């Protein structure tokens, strides 16, 4: 779950399992770009998060769709949903005032997503679906465009397994479930999704399907879009 800005959301990997380069790799890189030096993540204290531009009335309308816990304008939450892992995203995150969404929505059902889209159309707000936030092509950048504001839509509250059919060998899930959680739940029944992109730890099913991701087992099990039997999609 993405909830706050820290070194983990600012970077990729598990700090408990640091990766070290071999002497040969260090020597190669030193030769070409100079000796290694530490580049610590920018401290949260140094980052200025612009205030939300959503007025009280707009927020009230969104809360009427999402419920009181379904909308956050908290600075840390907005910062944690301010981009993915593209080179440009990472450079932006090293700045002191990155672009952030005006709010993060946490819908809990398909119906809420549909109503949210309708309300955002009425209010002229851009929305950016945000799964695991591992996009490397700028897919989760909070771009406002010509709109009055921009809202990131998290699927953290839609991350359940809805059903597993051992006969048809299908699983029905909410879009926010991550690879490790789904594998754990399937594994109990001796099953696997067979989808292991290198972003597996954080990426979500919704993100897989939206990006047609492929992983290191896809030559055998097929790309993510080839695994989809049915989708329920909310549209404007
Ligand atoms: C270290 C690293 C390794 C990677 N390895 C691979 C790899 O092996 N194979 C590969 O294919 N990709 C890889 N990627 C890219 C990325 O992880 C995949 O594209 C992944 O499928 C994105 O999933 P996500 O949940 O993080 O989606 P996000 O990054 O949150 O979103 C990706 C796009 O999908 C949209 N989206 C997300 N959820 C939904 C939803 N529920 N409904 C509608 N739209 C939605 C977003 O708006 C965005 O445009 C890697 C990225 C990193 C950082």
What does this entry look like structurally?
The protein is 33% helix and 11% strand. By secondary structure, the chain is of the alpha/beta class. The chain has two domains: 44-154, 2-Layer Sandwich (Uridine Diphospho-n-acetylenolpyruvylglucosamine Reductase, domain 2); 161-227, Uridine Diphospho-n-acetylenolpyruvylglucosamine Reductase, domain 3. Strand 5 and strand 6 (170-173) form a beta hairpin. Helix 3 (56-66) runs antiparallel to helix 6. The radius of gyration is 20 Å and the shape is flat. The mean pLDDT is 92. Bound molecules: flavin-adenine dinucleotide. Flavin-adenine dinucleotide is lined by residues 12, 84-85, 128-136, 139-140, 155, 175, 197-199, 202-204, 206-208, 210-211, 213-215. Flavin-adenine dinucleotide binds at residues 12, 84-85, 128-136, 139-140, 155, 175, 197-199, 202-204, 206-208, 210-211, 213-215.
